[in-house]
Amino acid sequence: MINSISIKNFKNLENLKIPSLKRVNLITGKNNTGKSSLLEAFSLIAFEGNPFFIATLLDERGEDYSKHISDYDLGNGYMKEKVNYSAQNLNLKSLYSLFYKRNLSSDKKEIEIISIGENLSKLRLNLINYEEKKVFDKEGSPIGQKKIASKNTENNFALEIDFQGTERHHNLIPLNENH
C-alpha cells in the first residue's frame, strides 16, 4: 500500500504532494484538474517506469508515434530478455504530453514520482541528449557501442528512465525527434 506520493512536472501536476493516503481514497474535482494524471502517476510507479507501459499509456491517449522500438534490450535486470514492441512506438513529440504543461524548458525536463509505502520507490523520467560511444575490450579492440548522456550533441534525444525501489532499473531509450 502506498502511504504518500510526491509528483513533479507530470502532465498538469507541477508539484503535488499527498502526505497521507488511506486504504481507500476518493479523488474528486472539476474537469482538467489532474485526477486522471494522478492515477497515471500511480500506474507509472506501480509498473516501475516500464517503457512498454509508457508507450501503452501514450497510445491510450491517442498520442502520435513514429519511432519503432524493436528488440530493444532493456537489460540491467529490468527484463532479462529482449522485448519486441511490435505495436508500440515512442518519439519526442509523443512524450511532450507527459511533461508539465507539455513544456520541455530546461527546468521542466524531468518528471519525478516518489511513493512511500512498505518501501520507498522513486521514478525519474528525463529527456536527455546522448551520443554513441565505442566500447573496447582490455586489448583495445572494439566490442560494441553504448549510449551515454552528453551535452555535446543536440541531435540525439533519449528518454532516460531511472527507477529505484526494491530493485533499481535504468534505461536509455533513443527517440526520434522529427515526428
Summary?
By secondary structure, the chain is α+β, with helices and mostly antiparallel strands. The protein contains three helices and seven strands, in the order ββαααβββββ.
Spell out the key features of this protein.
3 helices; alpha+beta; 7-stranded antiparallel sheet
Mean pLDDT: 77
Q: Give the total of beta strands.
A: 7
Order of helices and strands: EEHHHEEEEE
Report the sheet-strand fraction.
25-35%
Q: Which structural category do the helix and sheet elements fall into? A: alpha+beta
Poorly predicted ranges: 66-88
- Kindly report how far apart the N and C termini lie: 39 Å
Largest sheet: 7 strands, antiparallel
Overall tally of structural domains: 1
Structural description of this entry:
The longest helix is centred in the N-terminal third of the chain and has 12 residues, at 35-46. The relative contact order is 0.19. Residues 66-88 have low confidence and may be disordered. The radius of gyration is 17 Å and the shape is globular. The chain has one domain (4-175). Helix content is 15%, strand content 34%. Strands 1, 2, 3, 4, 5, 6 and 7 form a seven-stranded antiparallel beta sheet that branches. A hairpin with a 3-residue loop joins strand 3 (110-116) and strand 4 (120-136). It starts with a strand and ends with a strand. The chain has three helices and seven strands, in the order ββαααβββββ. With 179 residues, it is α+β, with helices and mostly antiparallel strands.
